[in-house]
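ESCALATION

Customer reports they have been waiting on this structure for their group meeting. Please prioritize. Original submission:
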Amino acid sequence: MTAFIVRYGIIGGLIIGIPMLWLMLAAKPGEVPVVGMLVTYLAMVVALTAVFVGIKTYRDKVLGGVIRFLPAFGMGLGISAVASLVYVICWEVSSANSSFDFIAYYKAYIIDAAKATNPTPEALQKAIAEAEAFAVMYRNPLYRMPMTFIEMFPVGILVSLISAAILRNPRVLPAREGF
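Update from on-call: job pushed to the front of the queue and completed.
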C-alpha cells in the first residue's frame, strides 16, 4: 500500500506543483500572477483525482476489486499528505526563485480590505499592524510550510472521504479483465 500512496501522492503533487512553478517563475517583476493562482487552485482539484485513482488501482490490482471504507480512507489520506508535501516543496522553490513577492501582495491586500470598510484611524493602524505581524510570521519557514500544507490537505481529506465512500462498493467501476 505504501508504494501506491507514494506513487499517487507524488503524481498528485506534481500535477499541481509543475503548473504553479511554471506560472510563478514566468511572472514578470511586479506582476501579480492572479491567473496563476486560479490555475493553481483548479489544478489542486485535478491533482487530488490521484486519490481516487490510487485507491481504485490498489483495490483492483492488489485486493481483487474489494476494499473497505477505513483502509480506502487511510490510503486517500496518505496520498493527500504526500501530494500536499510535494505542493509545499514546489511553493518553497517557486517562492525562492520567483520575482513575485507574496508577502508584499498579501500585506497590501489586508490593508486595502481594511481601508474599504472606512475604518477609524485606530482600526486601520490595527490592520496595518496585523499585516506586518503576518509578514514577520510568514518569513519563518516553520510557520509558512504548515500554512502552505493546510491549503491543500483539507481538500484532500474531503476527496478521500468521498473516494472511500464510493470505492468501498465493488460494483462501482469494477475491474475489467485484460486491463
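Sent to customer with the following note: The radius of gyration is 20 Å.
Escalation resolved.
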